[in-house]
Design a protein that fits this description.
heterodimer; A: alpha/beta; Rossmann fold; five-stranded parallel sheet; two-stranded antiparallel sheet; disordered C terminus; B: alpha+beta; ten-stranded antiparallel sheet; four-stranded antiparallel sheet; 11 helices; 20 strands
Chain lengths: 466, 389
């Protein structure tokens, strides 16, 4: 249940629940597992859970260092260090900030912070882009820097030039417009506002300093200002981010360039597949595009984007694939969140099509009529397919705060949480545990295997996450 | 206003219902209409004043009747056939409607008539207030024979001022949230609102696009005051409708069993709404607009049953185009019941009491408890209270 929650919950607002309820609920789960199954808790870091929960786990482990069993101490520290290196830097610096705020300052915490900062590939860049956070981490962990960073972060003399190029650009950006284009985008944005640089000039010239995510985010602003230097290669964007971007456009805009967007989606899905993955057989996806898949103001259209992404992955992974939406008949890419949640009818259609695996992506609030999916699956299993040739699985992108787990569709089919469509394959391998069918020992040994893979294997570049 | 009393039943002709969606103690049942012709359209006109007074007119030379309430929005009815166009572009929607007064930051709007013709094919109505005004003006004139028990004021002015308490949609627990998370069907034109499994209101419009635009206005409607408590302490029943899997041998059987399950859901929900649908109504025609008849109605007003008042627009062929209802609380029903009994016996107190199987004193105390003490002279009330003791 805990791992399942860690795959879907981010403590943000959902369609059916507010952020406060979500935060309280996930926090309770964390504390419970930490108190009772500490080793399992630490090893969950290796299971491929989402970034929010990874930082949550690292925080809780560091904050309660006294309770660790001496034998596990080294393992735990290795896991923490490996997890931090795999996380995006803004997440890690945010975590450090939180450690400082909550006054967690033990020897291990300081060591972890020191190690992380020394292992960063470009410390000067970090010092500029995350200036306040690096400074507060340095203060908190009593770090002194040998190089110019020390003067950049703490020094007063603004007149003296720096030797490090980036630091010097930052210093000059205060008075010279030209210098801001050498800075990272988010930092330059502040200076651009101060110098009153018009948006089109700024976007035109800052393009090279932007990350792919930033470019994707500013596509519409660029189009509005007729800037074309910001073109992104959509084929390189991570799957869920791409799906979110596509869904943010109007249906007309999507249908105008349907072929291009579909190509991008396919490419992203192909990249999300693990290497050497044997093609699966006949797969049907029952995808929920009801109004509730529009998500919340904090997670806009996320459930629908996950559904679109899962559909794209399955299409690449399967020999034969078909999607069945709850209320959408046209091409997948033109989908809109609208209407009621009738999952049972498309499910019966999918079973009639002769699927071997049916993946249902839905927030689990079924209302036309409620409980129908569970009953259809049970009847199908008992009466039509007693040999179990067809598997049905429910993937839920939404965490239900009151149940401490993603909402289920019935007892007859397993439910797993999913935050990024890219993690689908990991999650499917995990479904047995996530649904709570397997005993604890089996889960422990599975996690142990994942841990050794996580610590020794090459760090896979994990896509997306916010 | 044309007053033609008629008896008929409320039927959902041309409409079907779908499975309900539940949030907290609120059950919302979608009402669907396939292939709406679109020649009758509704849209919303917002009023932001603190209160509104509606000039109801009166007999020539007689005093004017006024109706006062907070009115958050009115509805504009258009049957010109190109209403869709106007609704979409919002042209002519902000037309001058009545007079706005302001004093010390308090604003009021004086509106002319409940139902007002604004153009050849356009009508402005104040939703639900049309029905409420009909309910309040029930036997509003007071006693026709000046029996001596009645106070001077009543004999002179009738029941004025007559008022009822109501609860706004946003005061009902869970209703605003239930409306927010509700998933609107593509063909949906209406909704039946159940609070703690009692039908609180029914709202039906002519066209699905209108419904999409007006869905959130349900929160601005008024409801029976007791529903606040019902919503807080009552809950929606968790129903598990059986799925007959014993005959399932193939996928087609599975499909059949599924649609049977959906059918029994719909039948169950219609049963829930039995207090309004298929019930005999007392109606009064309010306005005739081309092939459409606007009327207001009440159910039987029996104190032991649930009672609704409402207004509707019916097409000449009997299709229900617009419906909005309000569920009377038990106390409100009782008041209307007593007035009707009095009127039925020429306002003679002893005759009415006898017909209800009560002594005169018991009946007087009953009237007082229902809030009609102001109808009677003081010494009559005192005598009745003394006798009862």
């Amino acid at each position: 249940m805990f791992i399942n929650a860690c795959f879907s919950c981010t403590g943000q607002r959902e369609f059916y629940g507010d952020s406060r309820g979500q935060a309280v609920s996930i926090d309770f789960l964390h504390q419970y597992i930490l108190g009772n199954y500490r080793r399992l808790y630490a090893r969950t870091l290796a299971a491929g859970i989402n970034h929010f929960n990874q930082t949550q786990i690292v925080f809780n482990l560091l904050a309660s260092g006294r309770e660790v069993v001496p034998a596990d101490k080294a393992d735990e520290s290795d896991l923490i260090n490996a997890a931090l290196l795999a996380l995006p830097p803004q997440r890690v610096y945010g975590l450090f900030e939180r450690l400082r705020h909550q006054r967690v300052n033990n020897r291990r915490t300081r060591a972890v912070m020191r190690d992380y900062l020394t292992r960063r590939p470009d410390p000067a860049f970090d010092a500029v882009k995350y200036r306040n956070k690096v400074r507060s981490a340095a203060v908190h962990a009593h770090l002194g820097f040998e190089d110019e960073r020390s003067r950049f972060l703490f020094g007063k003399g603004k007149q003296t030039p720096f030797e490090t190029g980036l630091f010097e650009s930052y210093r000059r950006a205060g008075f010279a417009k030209e210098s801001i284009y050498a800075l990272p985008f988010t930092v330059a944005q502040g200076f651009a506002a101060r110098h009153r640089i018009p948006q089109e000039t700024f976007l035109e010239r800052i393009g090279e300093q932007m990350t792919a995510g930033e470019k994707l985010r500013l596509q519409r602003s660029a189009a509005r200002h007729d800037v074309d230097s910001l073109s992104v290669d959509l084929k390189k964007a991570p799957l869920t981010k791409l799906a979110l971007y596509l869904l943010s456009m109007t249906v007309e805009a999507r249908s105008a360039e349907q072929a291009r967007y579909r190509g991008a989606l396919e490419a992203a899905a192909k990249r999300a597949l693990p290497k050497g993955c044997a093609p699966l057989g006949r797969i049907a996806a029952v995808l929920d595009n009801s109004y509730s898949s529009s998500g919340s103001s904090e997670k806009r259209r996320r459930p629908l984007a996950v559904a679109l992404g899962v559909g794209a992955i399955l299409e690449q992974a399967a020999q034969a694939y078909r999607s069945f939406w709850t209320g959408h008949r046209e091409a997948d890419i033109l989908v809109r969140p609208r209407g009621q949640t009738d999952l049972a009818t498309p499910l019966v259609d999918a079973l009639a099509w002769g699927a071997e695996l049916v993946v249902i992506v839905s927030d689990g609030y079924e209302n036309a009529p409620p409980g129908a999916v569970g009953k259809v699956v049970r009847a199908f299993r008992d009466r039509i397919d007693p040999q179990g040739n067809t598997a049905v699985i429910h993937v839920n992108p939404v965490f239900d705060a009151e149940a401490y787990a993603p909402q289920v569709l019935g007892e007859s089919l397993p439910t797993v949480g999913l935050y990024n469509a890219e993690d689908l394959m990991t999650m499917l391998g995990f479904a047995r545990f996530a649904a709570g069918f397997a005993p604890l020992e089996e889960l422990e040994s599975y996690l142990a295997a994942r841990v050794s893979e996580f610590l020794n294997g090459p760090l896979e570049a994990r896509g997306g996450g916010s | 206003m044309t007053a033609g009393l008629s008896m008929n039943r409320l039927e959902l002709s041309g409409l079907s219902i779908a499975t309900s969606q539940i949030w907290g103690g609120v059950r919302l049942v979608p009402v669907l209409r396939r292939d709406a012709p679109g020649d009758l359209r509704l849209w919303k006109r917002s009023y932001k004043e603190d209160e509104a007074s509606v000039d109801l007119g009166g007999r020539t030379g007689g005093p004017k009747s006024m109706y006062g309430s907070y009115v958050p929005h009115g509805l504009v009815v258009d049957w010109s056939g190109d209403g869709a166009l106007k609704a979409a572009f919002g042209t002519r929607m902000a037309r001058q409607d009545g007079t706005v007064l302001e004093r010390d930051g308090h604003t009021a709007r004086i509106l002319h008539r409940m139902v007002k013709r604004e153009d050849r094919h356009r009508l402005r109505i104040l939703p639900l207030h049309v029905a409420m005004e009909g309910f309040l003006s029930l036997h509003f004139g007071g006693p026709e024979i000046a029996w001596e028990a009645y106070s001077k004021q009543v004999l002179k002015q009738g029941l004025s001022p007559r008022y009822e308490r109501i609860a706004w949609g946003w005061e009902l627990p869970a209703l605003p949230e239930a409306l927010r998370v509700f998933e609107i069907h593509d063909d949906q034109v209406g909704v039946l609102v159940f609070i703690a499994e009692t039908l609180a209101s029914a709202f039906i419009v002519p066209h699905p696009d209108d419904y999409r635009a007006l869905h959130q206005t349900v929160v601005e409607d008024f409801f029976g005051p007791t529903l606040v408590h019902a919503g807080r302490y009552g809950a929606a029943i968790k129903i598990d409708i059986g799925f007959d899997e014993h005959f399932v041998k193939s996928i087609d059987d599975l499909r059949g069993a599924l649609s049977a399950m959906q059918e029994s859901w719909h039948a169950f929900q219609l049963d829930l709404a039995g207090g309004l649908i298929h019930q005999p109504l007392t109606g009064e025609n309010v306005y005739r607009a081309g092939p459409f008849q606007l009327s207001r109605f009440m159910t039987g007003l029996k104190p032991t049953e649930e009672n609704h008042i409402g207004e509707m627009i019916v097409r000449r062929d009997g299709t229900l185009e617009y419906l909005k209802t309000y569920r009377l609380s038990a106390a409100q029903t009782k008041r209307a019941f007593l007035l009707r009994q009095l009127a039925g016996h020429d306002w003679h107190i002893e005759h009415t009491a006898k017909a209800l199987g009560q002594s005169k004193e018991q009946f007087v105390v009953r009237l007082e408890k229902a809030g009609f003490g102001y109808l009677l002279k003081d010494h009559v009330l005192r005598a009745a209270r003394r006798k009862r003791r």
